[in-house]
């Protein structure tokens, strides 16, 4: 630090400019270098989520993305999974805004007929310990199964999310009574006591996915080639 | 030289003695992996910013040193943010994401820049930064381990007590963080007091770190 002689304000401004220029140059360099890995990591995150809700497939999922508006105005993305050219399932990425902590996003695996085959919540900010009992499928690691390898095909159970599996909006569905609502709202879905809002959001996401699938079925079947 | 490193780990531990950086301490120690991630990110920023600030300490006009330090620190924090987005496991980035930018205003980083790096050479500043960072990481991980163990009997997210199925959520939330930090501070004080008694001294907190240097409570008295 220099002695308390008089330093002109121009010099101070110039010095700050130089410091900021050097910092900007350094940042630009790092941003340039990490742009590709970041894009890759983000893609991998979406891809990994899609992989967990779909049966084995061999096509390029990202290219099959189709977006539709649901009846409530939310955007639902559909991905088509194929194996050897045959459709093996669809993945729907849907979201609702009325979770307890705001937006909740889910990934739903659908069979070619539109039945829910798998359901995970991919992003949420629900209360830990309450809302997360609805949203999390958590593998519990213990010291006893530490070395054991995880079976990839099966997701850890979650009673609230699992109850939507096997249901659809087709005629022969087992949910007759005003389906896709919680029991306390006149539907047939169970909820977690103390986390009704989260349970309702989970129900809403599943509804967005299956109803949009039903509405835009022909387009989804046609598109995504 | 060695003393600069050790200083940050025990005698001037940023969390347990200096009581700096409480926001990340309470927010990220709900489990040990998050605490470790936050600790390592802060250590990197501390060490790098200490080195750079020590290198430019004679160039920077005293009047604008704080803005200059903040630019340097913010640059390194952004670099860490980008690197973590690119290479860290996504679960860690999801959990720490909003706290990484907050390292810019973490008192430890600016505090060490002002108190140490602006007065000492590059090598000693590096050691000080690493020491402070290690002390911070160590304190965070210990807190994280204690909190997650009290929450659900897990250590590093691995269940040690298998029959423990219902989480005790108080400990994973902010109040639990305060409680655990209080217990840690009490433990540290007991240890220091015992040690002092054994050596035949009376245990006094360091001069700057108790309420003697702060005059808020004496203002009223002076008026009278």
Summarize the structure in words.
The complex is a heterodimer of chains A (225) and B (224). Chain A is built from 5 helices and 5 strands. Chain A has 225 residues and is an alpha+beta fold. Chain A has one domain. Chain A has a 5-stranded antiparallel sheet with strand order 1-2-3-4-5. The longest helix of chain A has 45 residues, at 9-53. The mean pLDDT of chain A is 82. Chain B is an all-alpha fold. A two-stranded antiparallel sheet of chain B has the order 1-2. In chain B, strand 1 and strand 2 form a beta hairpin. In chain B, 39% of the residues are buried. Chain A binds chain B through residues 1-2, 4, 7, 11-12, 15-16, 19-20, 23, 26-27, 30-31, 34, 37-38, 41, 44-45, 128-130, 140-144, 146, and chain B through 30, 57-65, 67-68, 71-72, 74-75, 78-79, 82-83, 85-87, 90, 118, 157-160, 162, 167, 169, 172-173.
Q: Could you give a short description of this structure?
A:
The complex is a heterodimer of chains A (225) and B (224). Chain A is of the alpha+beta class and 225 residues long. Chain A is built from five helices and five strands.
Main pleated sheet of chain B: 2 strands, antiparallel
Helix content of chain B: 55-70%
Task: Give the number of helices of chain B.
Answer: 9
Following the backbone from N to C, one meets helices and strands of chain B in this order, namely HHHHHHHEEHH
> How does the helix and strand content of chain A classify structurally?
alpha+beta
Radius of gyration of chain A: 24 Å
**Which strands sit side by side, in order, in the main sheet of chain A?**
1-2-3-4-5
Order of helices and strands of chain A: HEEEEEHHHH
Overall, the morphology of chain B is flat
Oligomer: heterodimer
Number of helical segments of chain A? 5
Give the helix/strand layout.
The complex is a heterodimer of chains A (225) and B (224).
Chain A lengths: L8 H45 L12 E4 L5 E9 L2 E14 L2 E9 L5 E8 L8 H4 L23 H4 L33 H20 L1 H6 L3
Antiparallel strand pairs in A: 1-2, 2-3, 3-4, 4-5
Chain B lengths: L1 H8 L12 H7 L3 H24 L9 H23 L2 H7 L10 H11 L4 H31 L1 E2 L2 E2 L14 H25 L17 H8 L1
Antiparallel strand pairs in B: 1-2
Helix pairs in contact in B: 1-7, 3-4, 3-6, 3-7, 4-6, 6-7
């Amino acid at each position: 630090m220099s002695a308390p002689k008089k330093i002109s304000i121009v010099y101070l401004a110039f010095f700050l400019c130089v410091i900021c220029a050097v910092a900007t140059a350094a940042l630009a360099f790092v941003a340039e270098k990490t742009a590709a890995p970041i894009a890759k990591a983000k893609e991998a995150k979406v891809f990994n989520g899609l992989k967990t809700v779909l049966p084995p497939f061999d096509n390029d999922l990202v290219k099959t993305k189709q977006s539709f508006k649901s009846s409530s105005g939310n955007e639902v993305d559909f991905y088509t999974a194929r194996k050897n050219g045959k459709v093996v399932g669809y993945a729907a990425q849907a979201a609702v805004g009325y979770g307890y902590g705001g937006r909740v996003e889910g990934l739903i695996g659908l069979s070619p007929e539109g039945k829910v085959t798998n359901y995970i919540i991919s992003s949420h900010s629900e209360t830990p310990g309450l809302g997360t009992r609805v949203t999390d499928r958590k593998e519990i690691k213990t010291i006893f199964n530490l070395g054991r390898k995880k079976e990839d095909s099966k997701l850890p159970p979650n009673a609230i999310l699992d109850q939507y599996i096997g249901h659809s909006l087709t005629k022969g569905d087992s949910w007759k009574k005003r389906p896709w609502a919680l029991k306390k709202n006149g539907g047939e879905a169970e909820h977690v006591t103390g986390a009704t809002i989260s349970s309702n959001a989970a129900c809403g996401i599943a509804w967005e996915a299956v109803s949009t699938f039903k509405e835009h079925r022909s387009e989804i079947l046609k598109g995504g080639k | 030289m060695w003393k600069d490193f050790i200083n940050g780990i025990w005698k001037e531990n940023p969390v347990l003695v200096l009581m700096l950086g409480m926001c990340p301490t309470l927010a990220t120690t709900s489990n040990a992996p998050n605490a470790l991630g936050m600790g390592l990110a802060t250590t990197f920023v501390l060490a790098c910013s200490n080195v750079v600030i020590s290198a430019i300490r004679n160039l920077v006009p005293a009047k604008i040193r704080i803005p200059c330090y903040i630019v340097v620190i913010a640059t390194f924090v952004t670099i860490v943010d980008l690197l973590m987005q690119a290479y860290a496991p996504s679960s860690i980035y999801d959990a720490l994401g909003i706290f990484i930018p907050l390292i810019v205003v973490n008192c430890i980083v600016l505090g060490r820049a002002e108190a140490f790096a602006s007065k000492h050479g590059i090598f000693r500043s590096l050691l000080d930064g690493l020491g402070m960072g290690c002390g911070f990481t160590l304190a965070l991980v210990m807190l994280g381990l204690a909190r997650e163990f009290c929450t659900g009997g897990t250590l590093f997210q691995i269940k040690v007590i298998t029959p423990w199925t219902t989480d005790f959520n108080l400990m994973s939330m902010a109040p639990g963080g305060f409680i655990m930090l209080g217990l840690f501070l009490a433990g540290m004080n007991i240890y220091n007091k015992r040690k002092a008694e054994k050596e035949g001294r009376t245990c006094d907190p360091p001069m700057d770190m108790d309420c003697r240097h702060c005059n808020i409570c004496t203002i009223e008295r002076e008026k009278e």
